[in-house]
Amino acid sequence: MAMSFSPATSVRYTKPSPPKTLLSSLRDSCCRGPTVAKCNSTSSNVLSWSSAENYVKLKVGSIAGKPPAAKPLTGILRCATIEEIEAEKSLIEKSVKEKMEKTIDTVRSNFNSIRTGRSNPAMLDKIEVEYYGTPVSLKSIAQISTPDSSSLLVQPYDKSSLKAIEKAIVSSNLGLTPNNDGEVIRLSLPQLTSDRRKELSKVVAKQAEEGKVAVRNIRRDAIKSYEKLEKEKKLSEDNVKDLSSDLQKVTDEYMKKIDSIFKQKEKVLPDFTTGGTGNP
């Protein structure tokens, strides 16, 4: 008896999936979801996986991508107004002239404290007296007068300061010998020697040069202030050049003033080569 068979049914063999590892699970979760880019997309410091059977390979690489967009600067930059710039320029110019005027006053004061052929109360301007433990200027605690062309009279407001005043005069470099009678101090100006006159001429010249150096330093500081405004974009390079040129003219003017008072001081020093005694 013949037997009938049904058509052969094909059986598909399915290769078993490799067991999931930590990396494969991580890969699956990375590549799932609408908000996550593909694992092999171009980015910085990306991870890529390749798997075969039970083998998983991790590759770390730095693939250049587009740099992150720079954040826009926040804040407001306000340019200086013309009025503000002019105000700063005027302030610098005013400061320069004030400082140069003070320099001239200092030079004059120094010159007046130097002995000449005639008595002058300003000769004692630089003397400081220890008054109740505090150094004070002699002219602030005493009245100074010139009885004649060759002497000075110091009358203190407080007679208890007579000894302190006498000590201060002796300690000064004026070369004067005080005469204290218990009421006032008299100073007689001895005739200057030729050597002393030469020494004083050198002192005067040195003080004049110190005044000029001070004026130059004031000019230098002012130029630095102008250059600072240029860096802040408040002045142009041409502006700075013009202002520096004007500043040089002011500097030259004060240099001439120092030369003028220097020559005047030299004239009042006794000239022993001609037998003169100098003018007051």
From TrEMBL:
Q: What is its main location?
A: plastid
Keyword Coiled coil set for record: yes
Record GO cellular component, one term: chloroplast
Cite the Gene3D superfamilies for this sequence. 3.30.1360.40, Ribosome-recycling factor
Query: InterPro entries from the xrefs?
Result: Ribosome_recyc_fac, Ribosome_recyc_fac_dom, RRF_sf
Give start-end ranges for the coiled-coil region(s): 219-253
- Polar residues biased stretches: 1-12
GO biological process: what's one of them? Answer: plastid translation
Sorted alphabetically, the keyword list is: Chloroplast, Coiled coil, Plastid, Protein biosynthesis, Transit peptide
- Annotated region Disordered: the residues are 1-20
State one Pfam family annotation.
Answer: RRF
GO MF, one annotated term: ribosomal large subunit binding
Q: Where is the signal peptide?
A: none
List localization entries: Plastid, Chloroplast
Q: Where is the Ribosome recycling factor domain?
A: 108-269
The record's comment on protein family reads: Belongs to the RRF family.
Give the protein's biological function.
Responsible for the release of ribosomes from messenger RNA at the termination of chloroplastic protein biosynthesis.
This protein is called: Ribosome-recycling factor, chloroplastic
In which organism is this protein found?
Escallonia rubra
